[in-house]
Write a structure and sequence with these properties.
Layout: H1 13-22, E1 32-34, E2 44-48, H2 58-67, H3 71-75, E3 78-82, H4 85-97, E4 101-106, H5 111-119, E5 123-127, H6 129-138, E6 147-148, H7 155-161, H8 163-171, E7 177-181, H9 186-198, E8 203-209, H10 214-221, H11 245-251, E9 257-261, H12 263-277, H13 283-293, E10 302-306, H14 313-320
Helix pairs in contact: 2-4, 2-7, 7-9, 8-9, 12-13
């Protein structure tokens, strides 16, 4: 039976600040560094979520969501659905809290992400992408029990993600545009929720690969859309098959649009980040940088959120060389 989620509501700045205090033990205030890309424009800054304990931003939302569980929910154990980063975040927070964790993992997830989840104590249940996507809509999966933590459509998860927006405004008050990858929409909804309340004139833009860009299509049509030309790619941490209506509702008045970039642009951004900062970004993590470098985000200062760095090193080398 499908589990009905609670109604969508705005995330208040008070909830975001409370989430930051609640998750200080597990979440790092990551550095914001200027990208020296050998041209005068645009002025790009990198928010290095690769330096989180799980090397991805998902620890923010996961830590807050787990911390907010009731004693009864904790006793049941937790489960989530993930291509790797959300699963690591929930597993990391669950291990810290002494809670049993199961991750329904997309079967094409990189082995490096699966191994990391296992090392954090998670039980892994592999499933095809379509089955995982359906489970994110129905919030249930055959044979998996416990308290479900949605990897993006969860109020407390979004509030945790929003702490990233607080840090950006504190560290670069004159930022003009913030760009973050769109997968399910939880990252950009969180960032936007914080920044809209602190600096309402800052533009909030998504970034998606050409092979999976339901966000851009949804902004074009002004309604949540299914991306019928979806293809799997190395950008496995972003780019879904659709924008869920509930996530579209969260984005309203918060996100200004989404920039679509080619896979070649993503590869070049991954290489540039590595060359200039010695930071490894996975495909999804480089989307914002690729979008900023395209010139379609306008002038700076632009903050590109490098959302994660969990990629097999051999695969990384193949992509950038």
């Amino acid at each position: 039976m499908t589990v009905a989620p609670p109604p969508v509501r705005p995330v208040s700045i008070e909830e975001i600040r409370a989430a930051r205090e609640r998750t200080r033990k597990l979440v790092v205030h990551t550095p914001l560094i200027q990208l020296r890309h050998d041209t005068t424009a645009p002025d790009i800054w990198l928010k290095l979520e690769t330096l989180q304990p799980i090397n991805a931003f998902k620890i923010r939302g996961a830590a807050n969501a787990v911390a907010m569980l009731t004693p009864e929910a904790r006793k049941k154990g937790v489960w989530t659905i993930s291509a790797g980063n959300a699963g690591q975040g929930v597993a990391f927070a669950a291990r810290d809290a002494g809670i049993v964790c199961t991750v329904v993992a997309i079967e094409t997830a990189p082995e490096t992400k699966l191994e990391r989840m296992r090392n954090l104590g998670a039980r892994i249940v592999k499933a095809p992408f379509d089955a995982c996507w359906r489970a994110m809509e129905t919030r249930e999966f055959p044979g998996v029990e416990g308290t479900f933590i949605h990897p993006f459509d969860d109020h407390n998860f979004v509030a945790g993600n929003a702490t990233l927006g607080l840090e950006i405004i504190e560290d670069l008050p004159n930022v003009k545009t913030v760009i973050a990858a769109i997968g399910g929409g939880g990252l950009i909804s969180g960032i936007g929720s914080a920044i809209r309340q602190l600096s309402p004139n800052v533009r909030i833009l998504g970034a998606e690969p050409e092979t999976a860009a339901p966000g851009a299509l949804s902004f074009e049509k002004n309604s949540p859309q299914v991306f019928t030309q979806w293809q799997a790619s190395f950008v496995d941490g972003a780019g879904g098959k659709s924008i869920f209506p509930r996530m579209w509702e969260r984005m309203q008045g918060i996100v200004d649009g989404s920039i679509v970039v080619s896979l070649d642009e993503v590869r070049r951004a991954m290489r540039l980040i590595a060359e200039k900062t010695r930071v490894i970004a996975e495909g999804a993590g480089a989307l914002g940088v690729a979008a900023a470098l395209s010139g379609r985000a306008g002038g700076g200062p632009i903050v590109a959120v490098v959302s994660g760095g969990n990629i097999d090193l051999k695969k990384f080398a193949e992509l950038i060389l």
